[in-house]
Amino acid sequence: MPHLGPLRAIVGRGPNGSHSSRKAGRGRGSSDGSDRLFSIEAAVPDVETYLRLREKAGMRSRTVSGATKGLGSELFSVLLRHDDSDEIIGMGRVVGDGGTVFHICDMAVEQEWQGKGAGTMIMDSLMEYITREASSQSYINLMADVDGFYERWGFKPTLPNSRGMFLRISENK
User: Fold this and answer.
1) Half-sphere exposure (Cβ direction) of 55: Cα atoms closer than 13 Å
2) How far apart are CA 71 and CA 145, in angstroms?
3) What is the β-pairing status of strands 19-21 and 38-42?
4) Residues ≥6 apart with Cβ < 8 Å to 111
5) Which of 8, 30, 42, 153 is the 20 to 30 Å CA partner of 126?
6) Which residues lie below 8 Å from residue 134, measured CB to CB, with a gap of 6+?
7) Residue 21: closest CA among 10, 37, 6
8) pLDDT (tens digit, 9 = 90+) per residue, 6-15?
């Protein structure tokens, strides 16, 4: 998989109690006052992890055969780990042709960790990659399921100039 260089960010509380991070964003302590430490790395999930994260994030399921075929052909992918358990709790991918089209997909954070800065860390990493690789004429898109989240990176609804569309292929071909 091209373009996967070293990327690792450790996130936690700084010496003054504020949150600190290197490289990829921020994480927040839990509501019970304990620190939550996350790290993010450029890596592709295995099929089992991919399917599990989609389910635990409340996303539509994918088939094993589809995941097997698709994983590994992305332009860039990151995994987010909870450092205390080393469990992968989030992911994000960029697919496309690497020049004219970059599509952000599979933004998934386990529901337990949503709202704690995990998705922001993932998007920061994906946008760092896209900013480095895309030209001013590249088309960068995504299908937003969370109102207000992606706008902080400059994404805007395409209506009324254009509208997103999708097609699902029947399982009964």
Assistant:
1) 9
2) 22
3) unpaired
4) 56, 57, 58
5) 30
6) 102, 140
7) 10
8) 343 333 322 3
